[in-house]
Structures are given as C-alpha cells and as structure tokens.
Amino acid sequence: MEHVLIPPHGNVLVNRVLSPEHAKVAKEKAASLVQITIDEEQIKDIKNIARGVLSPLTGLMNEADFVRVVNEMRLANGILWSMPMVLDVSEEEAGRMKTGDEVALIDEQKNVIAILHVGDIYSYDAMHVTRQVYGTNDQAHPGVDRWMKMKPLLVGGLIDLVDNSKEPYYEFNLDPLETRFLFKTRGWKTVVGFQTRNAPHRAHEYLQRIGLELCDGLFINPIIGMKKVGDFKDEMIMKTYDYMAKQVYAKDRVVCSILPSRMNYAGPRDAIYHAIIRKNFGCTHFIVGRDHAGVGDYYGTYAAQEIFENIAAEDIGITILKLENSFMCKKCETVSTSKTCGHQDSDRVPPSGTKIRNLLTEKKPVPWEIMRPEVVEILLSVDNPFVE
After folding, report:
1. Same structural domain for residues 38 and 181?
2. Residue 190 and residue 303: Cα distance in Å, rounded?
3. What is the CATH number of the domain that holds 224?
4. Which one of the listed residues 48, 62, 173, 198 is annotated catalytic?
5. Is residue 348 among the annotated active site residues?
6. Active-site entry in 16, 68, 146, 197
7. CA-CA distance, 241 to 247, in Å (whole number)?
8. Domain shared by 64 and 100, yes or no
9. Is residue 197 annotated as a catalytic residue, yes or no?
10. If you count Cβ atoms within 10 Å of the first and of the last residue's Cβ in the chain, which end, N or C, has fewer?
C-alpha cells in the first residue's frame, strides 16, 4: 500500500515560489514597479506563505478573510484559521497602488523579495484586532504593542516569491515539500510536532519523549525570529536542539527544522495557528502543553488546550496531544506530572523559566533536575544566551 501522508490544511499545499527563470524575469520587471520596503519579519511571512507553510493562504489577506479571521477564526470560505496575516502600509504607500497593480516587495538593501498582486487596500481598528486576537488591549503585551505601532492601512493579494533564499540556518530550514519527503522516506506514518522558543529543559524533553512513544517520529520546530527580551537567542535554541537530536534521542527518530517567524504570544489562537503549520509540514500530532505561546499572565495555564474543545476534529485535522505540566520529582526520581506522581509539592522541582534565566545570567549551572548539564554547558559557553 502506498504511504499516504496527512493532507495539508485546506487539502492543497500552496507553492507560490517562482522558478529561477521566472524569478529572473520578475526581478527585472520589479525595477519599473512601485516598490514597498518590508522588514525581516514580514519577509519571513511572505516566504512562509509562498512555500506552503501557511497553506491554504496564497497571499496576504484581503479584507473578507481578515475580518472573518479576526472575529470568527475562519477564512472567508469557512476554513479554520486563527491569526491575521497582513501587510501594513502608510497612506502615502497606499496612494501609489490600486487593486490589480503589481508591486515589488523589497528588503532594506533593495533586494526584490516578492511580487504582490494587489487585491484589497483597507483600514482596520487595532484596538478591536488586539482584543479579539490577544484577548487584551494592554500594550505591555508584545503582540498588542506590534499592532498598535503598525501603519494605518492593510494591503492584501496574491504573492509570487522571487527570493527563495533560506539564510541563516540553511541546513535547518526545510519547507513542507522537503519535510513531507523526509517523513515519507523514513517510513513515518505518524509524526508529532513540537513548538518551542526555548532551549530544552527536562519538562520539554519529557513531553517530546511522550510524543515519540506515541508516534513514529518527532518534528522539533523551533521558532526563529523576533522575540521578546529575555527569550533565548536563536543560535542557542539551535545549538541545544541539535545536541538533543544527535546525542540524546534514538537515531533517525527526530527531525529538527526551524520555523522562521516572529513570536505572536497569542496563547490559544497561537496554539491553533501552530498546529495548522505543523499539519502542513506533515505532522499527524501536535503537542500543546501548559501556557502554550503565552506571555505574562494574559492566558490561563491550560487555555491553549481548552480552545480545542470548541473546534471540531475535522476542522483542525491534526491530533492535539494535551499534555500536563511536568516536573522532576525527587522521590519518584524521574520527571512526572500530577497524573503520575503522588508526592508533595516540596518534593517536586518545577522547570521555572525565571530560575533558569537568573542562574544562567549569573553564570551559574542550572540544577540537573531542571536542565541537562550538557545543555547548560552549551548555554554557558557564550556571554549572554538571551535576547537583549
């Protein structure tokens, strides 16, 4: 029987990457087009759309998709989607384009990234968007802060990717066509995806091991992009997970590849978004732990798990593994959860991010009960492993 992988979200794996020949023509054409400069995080969005990471999106959201996603977590055609994917422009920039135009999206060095086929140009209410998407208007929330600082108009439309470069971390930047080929080559029928923005501690490792016990393979997919101050730097995440994949886990049971993207810190909505992305990569299962994609105390500890209770299985199309908060129990002498450990809180060593950060900042080793000594050694090998 042929090995059939899970279908992508919306049943079509999008590919808006121009062939080298067509990219050359588009690059030459771009010189005569209106040009809009986009930043590094917007470039990541554009490339993710074009490579099918965000299937079924084929471009930036037009108004009908945007409004329904913000209000109902659905695209205009009814497909489940939780995060708005947009490009903000100034009134001056909007005045230089109209529906039906082609616009060149360029980086700050004037390199052509993509061609945008302009669809809708529309306004939005940032306060309404942030209340719906993040559950708050508090500008201390990094996602809210980003929206409050955006330009006043949005532009939607199909994109054609001209620059398909994958730096940095080229060898760890696989697109869905590549991961699906790799999973199929390895004979994996079930694959569990793990989202992270941190170097691994014992609790992360415990969740990953549960996933590996249930599935043929583990897809570790750290977010590489803009994060808040105090998060681990990208290179530290990559070095520590490269160690785990090569030195800790069973050979050929783990694939580690990056997700070039900003962190949204949208809690429950991000959990849905992250699950859909891993489904597009070819995962059949996705781990959602405590405070998934949270920040501060904006979301309940298990809010990101609870949101799936109101989503039909056929709408999300990937199995969600809702796993408990874990800790090292001194009496159990292993990592446990409240489901498996009957001891007191005083016997439990939780994986405190604040404690890990404080110890590493002071150049002190993190206790082995919280983080592997080899991982700690990697993190202590640099002056500062955190975003400043």
Report:
1. no
2. 26
3. 3.40.50.620
4. 198
5. no
6. 197
7. 10
8. yes
9. yes
10. N
